[in-house]
């Protein structure tokens, strides 16, 4: 995904540079597109963080279930 975003950014940048616009328009266009790309990257990072949090929560829940079942099976509930 990282390579795709880099390629997308380079492609957009080259497309804007070769478009028939004034220098100021080109700079503004590049800045806007860079901001859009930055927002997309931030969004992907936030989604990744949320997936990690969700995964940790799931693993923690599963571990607690295993501990509870083990305690019930051995008759050591509440000894931890």
Please give a structural write-up.
By secondary structure, this protein is mainly α. The chain has two helices and no strands. The radius of gyration is 25 Å and the shape is rod-shaped. The mean pLDDT is 84.
- Tally of strands: 0
State the end-to-end distance: 44 Å
The average pLDDT is 84
Principal-axes geometry comes out as: rod-shaped
Largest sheet: none
Helix content range: over 70%
Radius of gyration: 25 Å
β-strand percent reads under 5%
Which stretches of 5+ consecutive residues score pLDDT under 50?
none
> Which structural class matches the secondary elements?
mainly alpha
Annotation keywords:
about 80 residues, mainly alpha, 2 helices, about 85% helix, rod-shaped
Brief overview:
Helix content is 85%, strand content 0%. The protein is mainly α.
Strand and helix map with partners:
Elements: H1 2-17, H2 23-74
